[in-house]
Amino acid sequence: QINADRLWSTILETAQFGGTPKGGVKRLTLSEEDRQVRDWFRAACEAAGCTVSVDALGNMFALRPGRDASKAPLGIGSHLDTQPTGGKFDGILGTLAALEVVRALNDAGIETDTPLCVVNWTNEEGSRFAPAMMGSAGHVADLPLAEILARTDAEGVSVGEALDAIGYRGEVPLGTQKFSGFLELHIEQGPILEAENLTIGVVEHGQGIIWYNGRVTGFESHAGSTPMHLRKDALATLSEIVLAVEKLAVDLGPNAVGTVADITIARQSRNVIPGEITFATEFRTPDAGILEALDKGLQAAVARIADKRKVSVQLDTIWRKEPTHFDPKVTGAVAAAAQKLGLSHRPMVSGAGHDSFHLATIVPTGMIFVPCKDGVSHNELESATKDDCAAGANVLLHAVLALAGD
Amino acid sequence: QINADRLWSTILETAQFGGTPKGGVKRLTLSEEDRQVRDWFRAACEAAGCTVSVDALGNMFALRPGRDASKAPLGIGSHLDTQPTGGKFDGILGTLAALEVVRALNDAGIETDTPLCVVNWTNEEGSRFAPAMMGSAGHVADLPLAEILARTDAEGVSVGEALDAIGYRGEVPLGTQKFSGFLELHIEQGPILEAENLTIGVVEHGQGIIWYNGRVTGFESHAGSTPMHLRKDALATLSEIVLAVEKLAVDLGPNAVGTVADITIARQSRNVIPGEITFATEFRTPDAGILEALDKGLQAAVARIADKRKVSVQLDTIWRKEPTHFDPKVTGAVAAAAQKLGLSHRPMVSGAGHDSFHLATIVPTGMIFVPCKDGVSHNELESATKDDCAAGANVLLHAVLALAGD
Ligand SMILES: NC(=O)NCCC(=O)O
Ligand SMILES: NC(=O)NCCC(=O)O
């Protein structure tokens, strides 16, 4: 059994790095607060007997040796970065529970056969730099290193510059750290476990994701003196796109979601008709065919709206990740661990994206979900109970023992 | 006749205070650039023999004595502030043409019977501080001084602080400067004169205006894991409001316009469903009954949308100005001046708001329009020809001579 108090107190301790007055965390990837939590994490892993290395994207690997040094380690972990107004569990629970597994094994004097590797992936959130799950994308070579390093935030700072700024551009080449498998604990970030009063989600699938960047170019003019029929209103155009995204997701649902966010109106003024707007939009669904239909549907809707309003709309697909199917051996070990511990559980689809989606493309991978209050995440109000966090960490421990060999 | 070259060169000279690379002007009210143009304007008026005073809102009055010192002067002028990406004619033409009238009268050695007063009104644009036409609103006591001084910009700077920062909080109490009438030259900011190939608009009416500030409060949550039916999406809500505003203006048109602009999404991130948005919206129409119907229609639409989406929408009316009807004696003098000068002309409704709307509530007032290219204003591409500017200034001169007595 893991130490529930110790796990809980590390969650509260790290929540101070970027802690907000409302009890959330603002710890954007590669920020000063991220550096603080990384330094803390490195020291804690070393104190737990691990050797820490950092790769060219700042991904952190804390190695705990096993009996068979020839085996690639079993990776466990998640991420420590957060949304601009995020919670203290998203990613953090999975990373600190992995550390707690190592500490608990140390306490119990257990050496696994396969080495273990606790991982903190860089920029899982995708809020400061797009796309999300960037560090793990680099690790599995889903995106080239040079392209990732060149991506910039809203202020024009590149990933490479941000890594240097906090001293976390590591020596280790991307992908050097091998794994025999990967296992990630995470809060569900959705309402299902709570609604069904269950403790453990055995994640079998992950939604496919498409991210787009868009730009509407109309024409700025006077809000009082420009007749309605002569307008090229970028905001009215965007409004139709927002409602089209929503309608596509609803029509092709129930297993599809679509969102528009991150709007910037250039040169705005209250009595100027908006002339230029940039926006981000996305679709997610576990079904590859529906993902394709959503994409086609959006392209058609945007073309129709732009044509009708005689404005130009540019839509760039900046990221596309097909649906993920986790490894039956790993999900089986998760289900068996829950069963053995007497914890209620059910198979699930992950609504959010996770680094494990990338790991699943190279090694047997699985995920464990625990409930979060009202299914709320990406919000400072995000909350999970100490008991559920401990239950998830115990399932992680027992699945690790089954997969890595005690 | 005014001096067309001199008028044109003052327009180009002042366009340097806040001039943009695209040939526009960014001279937000009470900014450093506004201070520069105000200093220039004061010096130019004094050089033309006027006495300049400044009131408690920074409105500038340049008095040219007449034969009958007992008469309140005829006010002529407009404003020198601009939109964030404005042009070099909006307001500026009317202010500098008024100065040119004084210079031309000086050159010709003409003393009018009624004194003249060249005016530069503070914050006509309403972009930095709402509402628009703020200085003239204070002058006619449409809004109390204390309330105006307390209005803040997006950075939280108040009108009072901004006046002090550029040294233009004057000694003269609001409304001290009396007028016997007011006359303002302005670019049309709409497409009609150009389309009909006419030079002079005799402005007989001004649209009524309602300005609202709005706030949508939904709930921030994860864009990937929150099912569509559980969302409280503030941006989707706003999108329906934008399209409702547009539809109301079209349905109650052709003499109505409606616009949503100046959107801020709180705490935005591309994979967070927008939870809170502030926005500005407005309607304008020359018909008081239609203005009322637009207001009622918006309130009903907003209530319906908020109810359907289970989000809260707050809508505050921050400004309402009923339609303006200019004085027949003044508009008659404008039409007669155009006729006498052989300039084509027609009666018009002003689409944009102007300080003259406020002046019309206290003294006989009128306006003169000249065409601008493609009807475009509130845009750096705003443009008017030297000939049209000179024609407008000549109509102003001759209407002044008729009203003030040569
Ligand atoms: N788990 C999680 O919140 N990931 C952020 C990336 C995303 O799914 O948008
Ligand atoms: N004339 C002009 O552009 N005024 C600005 C105020 C407004 O009409 O919105």
TrEMBL record, chains A, B:
This is Amidase, hydantoinase/carbamoylase family. Its cofactor is Zn(2+). InterPro entries: Amidase_Cbmase (IPR010158), Bact_exopeptidase_dim_dom (IPR036264), Peptidase_M20 (IPR002933), Peptidase_M20_dimer (IPR011650). Its EC number is 3.5.1.87. Belongs to the peptidase M20 family. Binds 2 Zn(2+) ions per subunit. It is an enzyme of class 3 (hydrolase). One of its GO terms (molecular function) is N-carbamoyl-L-amino-acid hydrolase activity. Coiled coil: none annotated. Residues 207-307 form the Peptidase M20 dimerisation domain. Zn(2+) 1 binds at H79, D90, H186. Zn(2+) 2 binds at D90, E125, H378. Keywords: Hydrolase, Metal-binding, Zinc.
